[in-house]
Structures are given as C-alpha cells and as structure tokens.
Amino acid sequence: MKIGIFDSGLGGLIIAHSLINKLPEYDYLYLGDTARVPYGNRSQETIYQFTEEAVRFMFDHDCELVIIACNTASAEALRQIQQQYLPAHFPDRKVLGVLIPAAEEAAAKTKNKRIGVLATVSTVNSKAFVREVEKLLPGSQVFQQASPLLVPLVENDALKWAEPILREYLSPLLQKNIDTLILGCTHYPVLKKQIEEIVGRGINVISQDEVVPAKLGDYLSRHREIDSKLTKRSRREFFVTDKTEGVASLGTKLFGENIELQLAHLNQRS
Ligand code: DGL
C-alpha cells in the first residue's frame, strides 16, 4: 500500500519532494487536479466534492494513507472527509492534512502569540488556521491575509513581479506586530526567500515543506499498524487530471526532478 499526496494542482509537488526526500523508502502516489485548479476561490461544497473524488481515486489505487497537501482542501474538506466519508466508506484508511502541522509549528515558535497567515481566499474564509492555532495556544491572536495573486505568479514563472505584491500582502500583517508567519498554501515555499527578505530576521517563517515530513515520520512511528501496511520499494507515481506541455514542465520545475505524468480519470472506478 502507498502513501498518497493530493493537491489541487502542481504546488503539492514541492511538499511531495520534501516528503520523499525525508522518507524515501515508502511508495508514493501523487495526484494533482490540474483540470480544475485553482480551488482557492471556490465554494466549500465544490472543494469538498473535488476532494472526495480525489481521495476515492487514491484509495482505489491502493493508498493506505492520503496526505492532503492542499491547504484549501485541508481547510474546507478534511474534517468532513475524516468525520463522515471515511467512517462510511473506508473505515480502515487515513487522511491527514497540512494545516495542523503548520499550526503546531507556529504555536511552538511564537513568543508574543501574534501569528500571521498568508493563504488563499477560501482558506482565509474558512478560518481553519485561526481555529487550529487558538486551540493549540489559547490567548494567541491570528491575523490572516488572503493572497490570491501569488498562485498565478508561481504558476506562470513570474516571480520577478512578486516583490511589490508580497509587500502589499505582508504590510497589514507586519503592522499587527506578528513574530511568526505561516505560509498557508502549497505554492508559497517557492516565495519563502523573498518573503523572509521582506519580513526580516525577527519573524519565524513557517513553510510546510520544512515541517510536514518530520511530522509524518513521527506519525508513522507512533502508528505502527499503518506503517506496517505501507510497502517500501521506493516507487513513485504521478497522476494529473489534465496533461499539457505546460503542466509537464511546471511539474518538473516544482518537483525539482524529471517526472513522468499519467492521466487520472477521477470519476471512473479502476
Ligand atoms: N493548493 C492550493 C492551496 O494550498 C493553492 C492552489 C489553489 O488555489 O488550488 O491552498
């Protein structure tokens, strides 16, 4: 059985790469819903439906455990998947998100309990980061900033235009005197250096590609019953729901290595 990594598109390949680097022995299946990306401006109902279809595809392809690398799907669909879909359809499988690991890291790092979040519009509207951080660190204050222009900048290889936009998004958070900033979107690790230069050394920047692999390793060592079902032949498969030359070259760029993409049909059972 494999570890599945799901994202609305290709940004999740950044986290997939760091997971595979940290835990190389496992077999992985990546699924990016490139036909329907972005999820970040969609309704909760639509995000849930897309995520459920993706999770079912991954379970049908022998994933024991699925990591939802997409923050928007983690924020808008994960709870319903865990509390309703899994017990009804796949009671033995597990689905985890990327939001709680980032919230835990932020709660551990902050000194003044003032935490900023950069994320998509849907993630911000869900207030999922606010809930999770406040649960972990009562009395903390979480300030969110929706940053809808950042994903298109990364996808269009347009980082040279990012700086003024980043300054615009970061300025309200800096005015709140935050000491910790969560990059709450799959694509933002690519912008981490630029963000660190703008916010300065005094602010902890939490990037999920640096946090999630260790948390997964820890989870698997605590859940031997899951780990024992996972095959360890270092196999990797990469699926997308729409395959073009642009998708292939962006995929290779974000993963940092050549990858072969297969086409996934989410509504058909294998
Ligand atoms: N994967 C999404 C996230 O992490 C960003 C791209 C999108 O909007 O679908 O929130």
From TrEMBL:
The keyword Isomerase applies. Keywords: Cell shape, Cell wall biogenesis/degradation, Isomerase, Peptidoglycan synthesis. One of its GO terms (molecular function) is glutamate racemase activity. It catalyses: L-glutamate = D-glutamate. Substrate binds at residues 7-8, 39-40, 71-72, 186-187. The keyword Ribosomal protein does not apply. GO terms for biological process: cell wall organization; peptidoglycan biosynthetic process; regulation of cell shape. It comes from the Bacteria. Its EC number is 5.1.1.3. Pfam families: Asp_Glu_race (PF01177). Coiled coil: none annotated. The active site is at 70 (proton donor/acceptor), 185 (proton donor/acceptor). Pathway: Cell wall biogenesis; peptidoglycan biosynthesis. PANTHER family: GLUTAMATE RACEMASE (PTHR21198). Belongs to the aspartate/glutamate racemases family. Provides the (R)-glutamate required for cell wall biosynthesis. This is Glutamate racemase.
